[in-house]
Each structure stands twice: as C-alpha cells, then as structure tokens.
C-alpha cells in the first residue's frame, strides 16, 4: 500500500471567442497561444509518458467552450495560419540572432524547433483536431477527462434553477458529443459552490466535483481527514477539495516555482522589442504590436527591471524544471508521511487543481515540470501513487458524508470577484434573460417543429444566454483586463438574445439576421432548449 | 385595511401587503446604506458603421435593451459578511398606497427592509423605485429583502420581496460527525486544519476544545470582563468571533483591524468600549485560556498568483504562544 495518493487536476478553459465577421481578431489569439504553448505540449507529454510506460493518471477538464473551439473548422484553419506565420518568424529569427544577437540564439533555435514540431503534430499526428487526441488518451486509460459548466457560468449567481440546470445538462450533452461517454466529474466553474448544486449534478449523472479547500474544511460535520480525502454530499455526490500546500508550491507568486530566476520572463516579448517594419509581416493587418510568444529573456530576479533581464537559456531552465519536479515529489512524500501519521495510518489523497494554461503559457517550463514529475513519480519512488478522483471512487475506500459550505476558489474564497461594484450592473440583465428564456421555452419548446423557425430561435436564444453567463466577462471586468472586450461580449449576447426573443414573441422573424447570429455564435449545435422549461 | 399576504410572488401585480411591525426596526449598522442606481455600462461605437450592411450594423453596436419596467427584487451573496440587493418596481407604488390608504398614506416612505431570518431582526433604509445596494451582514445567516412603505408605529406595507439567501459560515463547523467512524476530537481536528494551511482556525478549534457550550461561556466571559458588560450580552455571538476579537486585540491589532473580520453587530458593541487595550485583552486571555503571550502575523498572500487567475489563499492571522507550546486543546486548559 502506498503512503499516499497524488491527484493532478487540470482545468483547461477559455471563453468562446470566435469572430467569423472579421478576418483576424486579437482575442482569438488566446486560443492560438494556448494551443501552441499548452495543449500541444501537454498532449505530446501525456502521449510520451504513456508510451514510456510511466502510466500517468491525470484528471483534466476540457471545458465545453474550449471543446467547441478546438473542434471548430474555422478556428482550426485560422490556427494553422497563425502557427505557420509564427514558424516563419521563428525561422527568420534564427538567422537574425545568429548575425546580430548571438546571446539569444539558443532561445531562437528552441522556438524554431518547437514550432516546427508543433506544426507536424498539429497537421499530421492530430489532424488539426485536439479533441480527438484528448479523447484517445482517455480511451487508453491515461486521462480522466471531466466537464465544466457549459459556458463556465458562475452557478451561484445564476438566478433560476432552469438556467443552472442548463449549464450542467448542456455541458454533459456536449461532453458526450466530443468524448463519447458520460463524464464522471465536473470542475464547477471557478470552483463556485453553494448547497443544492449537487442535486443538479446528480440529476445529470455526475459523480463528483472539484471544490476549494474551505468547502470541505468548513463543511458540516467536521471532515475527519480534512481535504486529504473526499467527502460525499448527503445526496451521494462526491467532493474533492484543493490542497493548499501544493497550490502554494506551484502557484504562489511569492514562493512558487514559476518565479525562479532562470525561467522564461513572460512580459518581455519580441513583439514589443524588435523594429516594427521587421515584425509587420507577422502582425495582424492593422499592424498593431502584440505579444508574439517569442520571448528571449529569463526572469533574472524579482526586482530586476525589464531592460536588465538576462538572456534565456533553455537548458538551464530545463534543469531547473527537473529540480523543481524532484523537490515537488520529495515534498509530497514528506507531506504524505506527515498526513498519514496525523490520520492514524489512513493514506491521504492530495488533490492539486490548477489552470491548465498555467503550464506553458504563464509558466513556460510548466509542461516540462509535469513530464519530469510523472517520470519521477513512476520510476524514482514507490510511496506516492498518481490517481484520479474517479480512481479513488472506484477503490471502494469509505467516504465521510458531509454538507460542504458555499465557496469559490477566487480572491477571499467567496463570490467577490464575480459580484462587486464593477460588474454588479450585469446581473439584472442576465437574470431577466434567464426568466424570459424559461417563459419562452415553456410557451414554444413543446411545439413540434424541431427544424422550424421558433425552434431555431429558441436554440439560438439558449446559446446567447449561455454565452452571456460566462464567468469570464465578470472576472475580466473586475481584474481590469480586456474590460472593453468583456463588457462588449456580455452586451452583445444580451442584445442578440433580446432581438431573438422579440422575433419569437412577435412572430416577425428576420431570417437573415437569425442566420447571421447563428453563424457567429455557433456553439452547441446539439442544444435542446427544452432544458429551460420550468422545473417540475 | 388590506389583508396580510405572506405568499406574494415578487413578479405578480401591484397588490400591497400590510405587515404589522410589533417593534421598532433595528439596524445592526449605525451607518445607513444609501441606495445607488444600477450603473449604466459604457457603449462603444465602431468607427465605420456606415460601411456595414444593415445586419452587421445591428450586431456591431450591442446596446443593452432597456430593462423592462417590472418588479424585481434579487438578493445575491458576495461573501459571509456582504450581500448585494437590486430591485425595481413595475409601476408607481405610491399610487397604490394612496389608493389603499387615502390620506392615511401621509408619512409613509419607500424603504428597503432587510430581514435577518435567523435572528428575527431587520434593517431599514430609504429607497428609490429602483436601484441596488450592498449590506454588511452576519455570516451563517438567512436574509430576505423587501421593498415597501414604512412609517413609525404603523404597519409596514410590503410591495415586493426577494429570494432568500443564506450567508455561509466562515469558520469550521462546531459539529463533529455522529458516527464513531468519522468522529474527530477537537485537538485532532486542529491538527488537520494546521496541516491544511488553516492555522488561525486550527488555533481556535484547539482552544475551544470539545465542549462547545463551555467554550462559548468562556469566550463570552472573557469579552464581558473587558467590556464591563454581563456575559449574557455576548451569548448570542459566535464564540469563535469573540475569541478572535480577544486574541487579535491581545496581539496588538486595533479595533479598525477587526471591522470586516467580525460580524457588524459584534463590532458595534466592541467599538463602544474604548477601555479595551492590548494589556487588558492579554490579561483576559491569560486568565481564561492560560495563554502567556500572543503574536499575530498577517500573511499577505491574498490572490497573488501567476497568470490571470485570482486564486484564494487564506489570509492568516497566526497566533503563537511564547514560549512555544504546540497547538492542542490540552495545552490551553
């Protein structure tokens, strides 16, 4: 029997950003950067670990919005163009750095090599569809893919039971479409929980959800094993909560691994450093400078100004990633022994949830860290076993019954990030749309015209409402990042919802407008608006 | 006089409800929150609307539709000590009031009544027809808001009421499992909290011990000694908050430091007793808990993480005994 278990849970999510009405769109780069820096490297590493026999067991949420984008032909085609353009620049950079800036030649060569490999993987191995690749890894027993809210809606701030249910049921239907089975677990958007949500999960066939630490630590009654064992809600849904120690080690800006001096500096990018004329062929048509993803400096030191950063040395960073992984494993062993002693011999189950985009995008060496971590877990020790929440449930180990408490994983642990003075104006509009959706679904969804206009209108209204509910908009408005875009997206979906609802209510359908909205917000082709009919 | 109707749907019609108030409204806050209107979001105009097709133009300027004139009353929980309320009424409620009461409607004013369903108390603040506001509230408490007419010594006339929200507990549960398999003594649970990174809670659970009633009495007595008030005055408060206040002051924190960390009603009482100081609090801590010295250390971890996420790390007020004794309920009794 091992001393303890370690469960890495990754949350891969991006809001649905797709703008066919423009030939290029800045915010679509979020997806393209994540594919290059996060999803392709992670898939490559998971596959290699699997082939090497390292038997990684990892839970990963591929959110429904991300799944839909990854499977979208327009975005696949645009990403191919994006990657080819970046590779072209990287290859130009190998020549330039060799002639003009030799201190950066190693970094430039690394980008050219990695991007060439990414293009091969993208086109040849994965056929431009990463969903199929993730699905295969699940089918082969490597990954346990879980779902999320349909559009990452912040469930406790959704006003109607029908709309909350739709976030769950639409997600499950979408998961089945992409992954060909029922999801076992769910990453609650922002880990936001309030008592009662588990009933919606159970009704959708979901066995467990991921929560923040205090959901269980402050739950009732006191959890005998703290967060180092799951609990079961009185309705039978299991809860796995975040371990704080592993969170700090990786995520803390003060002591976390990603802050190491030799790791790549995120904020210094050639998109801002090199002459505009040189970069112009690789920028969007409007010529605006932006992050291009080629970054040649290392962090160097917390307080070192950007202009004084030293060149990035890939091998040095790789060694540090290996060292950090060794340290992480050693700390897990120490933690497991200490917890086991505290628990009187019961093996702890340590759950470490992170945003997947931390690994590769924000922390460039993150995928290497995961690679080393699972190799060391498999070959260098036998006290810790990597397992998924589903593995734990299958083990038959008894689980304590407890009612978790309301919580989220955001700042201060509750709902402040998504409800505050900057974004509270959104909720009356969202809540009105939620009530109206149910009223109109009740009135029109029973009509037997699945292909007719009223059905199309209802389906598109459901898509617009779901998109308006994305927690990403309120989050970014509060954080002060892309405020204009986020505010505009929220207004767009409410506006479109209203246009469609008026068509449905009046019977005066504008077919071209309906078609245009359908073509822009084409998420969830399978959606069934009956889900919004009033609860019994 | 109209009949009392307790079951009115907030979205249904304009019937008024007359609700007798047997006592003067009380407010847990000395500062009356001011209702603020719903913020108007900015609208951004694209540069070249004229070049677009009518459909593209329609979609290019996403204007929020005006909120329909309707009854709305929604309470939203932000945190254990803060809730948000927005409201609107579909038609002029004063006309309905005048119609129902005639000249007796004089003296009534439109207010929000926030009802604490757990303690059966309420706050009343003046209101407009529509708006939004924030309330500082108690944790682990059920609330409901009403918009209606208030006049001194007359029935409250309810126009609309909100959903009910329950603020969560912000500390560990005082209950251990009933089943022997999952039961855990306090000193053991304190260790669990400690290894989970919740050291402040670990300390409190340890000193509270397994006898919740005795712990509550001790905390009330300790705080009562300092304030010169009878212990019964504090019997309704969460004993964790009483201990937290005592140890915070004993460790050198100021009253202002406590403002948003304890319930507003406890803060209001403690604030009135300016005789509290570090030495007096430490003497009480020593007398009631056998604590020699307490230090605090606030770790400013907050939400500082890599990337765009805003992940919660508990802000910890770490208590230490000097000389170092381990955290255990046995240590303190």
Task: Describe the protein in words.
- The complex is a heterodimer of chains A (536) and B (333).
- In chain A, strands 1, 2, 3, 4, 5, 6, 7, 8, 9 and 10 form a 10-stranded mixed sheet that branches.
- Chain A is α/β, with parallel strands linked by helices.
- Chain A is 49% helix and 8% strand.
- Chain A has helices spanning 29-51, 64-70, 73-100, 105-125, 130-139, 161-179, 197-203, 213-217, 244-251, 270-273, 276-279, 314-342, 366-379, 389-395, 426-444, 453-468, 471-479, 483-506, 511-520; strands spanning 4-12, 58-62, 143-148, 185-187, 208-211, 231-232, 238-241, 349-355, 384-386, 400-401.
- Chain B is α+β, with helices and mostly antiparallel strands and 333 residues long.
- In chain B, 28% of the residues lie in helices and 19% in strands.
- Chain B has 10 helices and 10 strands.
- Chain B has helices at 54-60, 93-101, 186-195, 199-208, 212-227, 239-250, 255-258, 264-271, 278-289, 329-332, and strands at 17-19, 72-79, 82-88, 109-116, 121-126, 131-136, 142-150, 156-166, 294-295, 320-321.
- In chain B, the strands form 3 sheets. A 5-stranded antiparallel sheet of chain B has the order 1-8-7-4-5.
- In chain B, strand 4 and strand 5 (121-126) form a beta hairpin.
- The radius of gyration of chain B is 25 Å and the shape is extended.
- Mean pLDDT of chain B is 78; it is low at 1-13, 22-44, 298-304 and 317-333.
- Classes of the chains: A alpha/beta (536), B alpha+beta (333).
- At the A-B interface, helix 8, helix 9, helix 12, strand 10 and helix 15 of A face helix 1, strand 2, strand 3 and helix 3 of B.
